[in-house]
Design goal:
about 55 residues, 2 helices, mainly alpha, elongated, about 90% helix
Length: about 55
């Protein structure tokens, strides 16, 4: 069950980062480097989620 909790935590982080990216990009002076870093972080989390979900199944 601890693994499922970790998956849930990562899933929540993924959603939060997506919201931050969307919010950042609505700002006319959005920071391209910050958005790129956030997207990389989001991708790392997605990859980890896929790996963990495959381990559960």
């Amino acid at each position: 069950m601890a693994l499922q909790g970790h998956i849930n935590h990562l899933s929540n982080q993924h959603k939060k980062i997506e919201n931050i990216i969307q919010s950042e990009m609505t700002n006319p002076d959005w920071d391209e480097a910050r958005v790129a870093a956030l997207k990389k972080q989001k991708l790392r989390i997605k990859d980890e989620l896929e790996r963990l979900r495959a381990a559960v199944n």
